[in-house]
Each structure stands twice: as C-alpha cells, then as structure tokens.
Specification:
There is one protein chain. Helix 2 runs parallel beside helix 6 and helix 6 packs across helix 9 (238-249). The protein has a 6-stranded mixed beta sheet. A two-stranded antiparallel ribbon has the order 7-8. The chain contains 9 helices and 8 strands. The protein is of the alpha/beta class.
C-alpha cells in the first residue's frame, strides 16, 4: 500500500531556545480515503514533552482536523494508545526525549479498524471483554446473611492482583501476531481478564469462563510470542495468564 507524505510548515513561532522534532502523523478517514498518508509537522519540544503533548500542539496550532483519542493524560484511562515509531505505546506516557529520534512517527494501533487518523474502533475488544464476564460470579446459596465482604488473604489477592491493573488500552491486542491473522481471536486482553477472575477465590464462574475460551478462536490460537506482555504499560503479563489458563484446561491446576 503506497503511503504519501505531506509536509506542512508551522504557522506559529517556535522559541529559538527550544529543540524541535519532526512529527509524522498518519492521516486516514475510513469513509473517504483508500490508503493512509503522512503529514509532517515541526514541533517544539523540551525534555519532558510527551508524544501526546506534541500531537495536541499540532492539533491546537497547525491542523485542527487531526483525530486523536485521549483523556486522563496520566496512563490511567488507556485512551491514547497508538504506534509510536513502530511500537504500541501510550502517547501520554511516552516522552519524546526517550525515543532518541529527531523524527517521531505516530500511527493508529494495528489489528483494530481505523475510524480516522489515530483513533481506532474498540467495539470488538470491549465486546470480547464483556464475554469474559469481568465481574465476580457468586452463587446465591453461598451468600451468608449479614455478610458485607468476602475476606481474602494477601496470598489470595496476589494470584490475580496484577491482572486487575488492566486499563483496556488495547496495546496487547495491537502487538499480537495472532490477532493480525485471526480477527475472531479472543486476544490477550480478553484472556488475561478471564484469568483475573478464574484465579480469584471469591468467584464461582471458572467452569463457564474456561468453556468460553476453550474454542477454535480461543486460547489455543495463542502462539506465545510474548509481545503482549512486552508492551503493557501497567506491568500486566497476559502471556503468563494464558499459560496459567492452559494449566486449568489441561488439568494441571484446579
């Protein structure tokens, strides 16, 4: 697919004392364009400037039409995931000074339908997440009248704690080579969240969740590339979760 590059000259003054980089932003509208193009902008940066701040500088001062999704700006909401110099990353969490490059290229995440420019469609990922029943399933017959909480030991919590840190940014799915070839694959995000509840000793939905993931586009499609764990900004290890889930399905874990 041919990709055209369009250079744009900034119309705002850049302080002489500021360093600058060339920001290459992928432009694509799914309703009107047949292929993406790149627009280049000269952007002033300082050592603390994040990629998101650079994009917003362009949007506010040079081209208001750029589409980008963001919210919290502190790596908590997962909204600003994108490809930054070829790696799935959060734009608000990535400092330009850490990239060691005078040219920064931002593109929409792979393995997701593109809505426009840097914004992708999360509908399938959220639908898959919902199928995993991301909540505690508890049989009513086990509830004790007057009980207000289910106590757990630190060891109980440790089994699932890291997987509860998922912010649904989609970076793990974007980096997954299986998702690039199988659009129906559950994906590392959904599988890691399935494990988060399977490993929780308060939950009674293990059998049902294991049945959901034990299918042709489920857990056995994972080739264990490990890229999902490598790109997670919150330290979640989906690859390990998938291996532990396989242990349940193979009868090694109960």
């Amino acid at each position: 697919m041919a990709v055209e590059t369009i250079s744009k000259t900034p119309e705002v003054s850049v302080p002489i004392s500021s360093d600058s980089i060339i920001l290459r932003i992928s432009r694509f509208n799914s309703e009107t364009d047949s292929s993406p193009t790149f627009a280049e902008f000269k952007v002033p940066v300082q050592k603390w400037t994040t990629v998101l701040e650079a994009i917003l500088f362009v949007k506010q001062n040079l081209d208001h039409s750029i589409a980008v999704r963001y919210s919290c700006r502190q790596a908590s909401c997962g909204s600003c995931g994108m490809q930054i110099n070829g790696k799935p990353s959060l734009a608000c969490y990535t400092k330009i000074s850490e990239l060691n490059s005078s040219i920064v290229t931002v593109e929409p995440m792979h393995n997701f339908p593109i809505i426009r420019d840097l914004a992708v469609d999360f509908k399938q990922m959220f639908a898959t997440h919902k199928k995993m029943k991301p909540y505690i399933v508890k049989e009513d017959s086990e509830l004790i009248p007057g009980t207000k909480e289910f106590l757990q030991t630190p060891e109980d919590v440790e089994k699932y704690l890291q997987f509860s840190y998922c912010i649904k940014c989609g970076l793990c799915n974007s980096s997954c080579p299986t998702m690039a070839t199988d659009t129906s694959f559950i994906g590392p995000q959904g599988l890691a969240q399935a494990y988060r509840y399977v490993a929780d000793n308060r939950d009674d939905g293990k059998k049902e969740r294991l049945k959901i993931i034990d299918q042709s586009h489920g857990i056995w499609r994972c080739h264990f590339a490990g890229s999902c764990s490598h790109v997670c900004p919150k330290g979640v290890d989906p690859a390990m979760a998938i291996q532990l889930l396989r242990g349940y399905l193979l009868g090694f874990r109960k």
